[in-house]
Amino acid sequence: MRKLFLMAAVFGAGVFAYNCGGGSGSAGSGTVALYVTDSPLEDAGKVEVAIKEIRMEHKGSGTTCTVFAPDTPYTVDLTDIKNTLELLDLTSCPEGPYNRLVVVLDKDVNVLYNDELKTCTLVDYDPDRDGQDKPIKPNRTQCDDNECFVYVTGAVNVLANQTNDVALDFELKDSEINIDNSGNCTVAFKVSPLHAEGMKDKEQEVKGFVSALDTDTNTFNLTTKVGTVFTVSYTDDSNNYDDVLSLAQSYNLKTEVECEHLDLENATCTAQGIEVKVKGIAVSVDDSNKTLILDIDGNRDTTDDQIQVSGGKWEGNIQEGSYVEVEIIGYDGTYYLAKEVEEEKS
């Protein structure tokens, strides 16, 4: 049996209450800004989890506030958000204390390990599963047929009419991926809270879809999974972001913006980095020169929906006809410049 230990992988959320006088809350409530983050993983090329819901609870009073509930599960690749705080949502919650956070995850986890794609299954977390004498943690994971519930114990205090910085981290530490001799794959992980201090010095990032692109003023709107709209300003430097963003807008591609300055109250972001993710069929693959043509619609009948891609880190067995995801970070006038090209399951 092969085991991949996910040492010090952090899956984190920062919870903040903002001043109601600024329009970000009402009397008796505060605004919760929810983030997800991850520390570097050396062994896995991809660890994708699908978040169905995140909510805060107080087990004594019964107070509950759902802070993230997308219409469809939101997929996060934990290896793609290294040392970055990705904003998930802004939500108004009743003021007062909360002592537990519940994360609902899809039971399937997609893993790329040693250039091999696996669909793994999340399992209950048992801190004594390896037979060693370990203290029982207050946090646990319980799974049913389709989903898993991660229960994180810790104090979160949402205050009205003032600004609060309170952070909770979900830490995938000492977790492991088990692949048996038959190729069956399971993922077991534990979760423990961290202090807000651990969230410092991480870049803030917003993901969404591009609209209202104005290449004269170098601005566009970015709409998140749950419908929050941010106004983003950028500099069209050597990366030729105008072309990259035009592609993103034309094909409604998921776009990641790393914000030099993120203003949650006014929903604005000053971009210091932009990545666009596009999926399609790889054709004319040249592994030695790291170039390929990406057929975005996958039909390969015309060249209208094809782009030329160059460079980047290639992960998986990428060959003619492979279904891939490309992370685009620039354009040189001929090729879209890749940060990463990754084999996907079609």
Sequence of secondary-structure elements: EEEEEEEEEEEEEEEEEEHEEEEEEE
The secondary-structure class comes to mainly beta
Q: Report the principal-axis shape.
A: globular
Helix content: under 10%
DSSP strand count: 25
The number of helices is 1
Rg, alpha carbons: 21 Å
Counted up, domains total: 2
Share in β-strands: over 45%
Distance between the termini: 27 Å
**Main beta sheet: strand number and arrangement?**
12 strands, mixed
Averaged pLDDT: 81
Are there runs of 5+ residues with pLDDT below 50, and where? 2-27, 163-167
InterPro entries: DUF4382
Keywords: Signal
Signal peptide: 1-17
Pfam families: DUF4382
Topology readout:
Blueprint: E1 2-6, E2 9-17, E3 29-36, E4 44-57, E5 64-68, E6 74-77, E7 84-94, E8 96-106, E9 108-113, E10 116-122, E11 140-143, E12 147-158, E13 164-172, E14 175-179, E15 185-188, E16 203-214, E17 219-223, E18 229-233, H1 241-251, E19 254-263, E20 268-286, E21 291-295, E22 306-310, E23 313-315, E24 323-331, E25 336-343
Parallel strand pairs: 7-16, 10-15, 18-20, 22-25, 23-25
Antiparallel strand pairs: 1-14, 2-13, 3-7, 4-5, 4-6, 4-8, 4-9, 8-12, 9-10, 11-12, 14-15, 16-17, 16-19, 17-18, 19-20, 20-21, 20-24, 21-22, 24-25
Description:
It is a single chain. The protein is 3% helix and 56% strand. It has 346 residues and is mainly beta. It folds into 2 domains: 2-199, no CATH class; 207-346, OB fold (Dihydrolipoamide Acetyltransferase, E2P). The strands form 3 sheets. Strands 3, 7, 16, 17, 18, 19, 20, 21, 22, 23, 24 and 25 form a 12-stranded mixed β-sheet that branches. Strands 1, 4, 5, 6, 8, 9, 10, 11, 12, 14 and 15 form an 11-stranded mixed β-sheet that branches. The longest helix is centred in the last third of the chain and has 11 residues, at 241-251. The protein is globular, with a radius of gyration of 21 Å. The model is unreliable at 2-27 and 163-167 (pLDDT under 50). Residues 1-17 form the signal peptide. Keywords: Signal. Pfam families: DUF4382. Residues 29-186 form the DUF4382 domain.
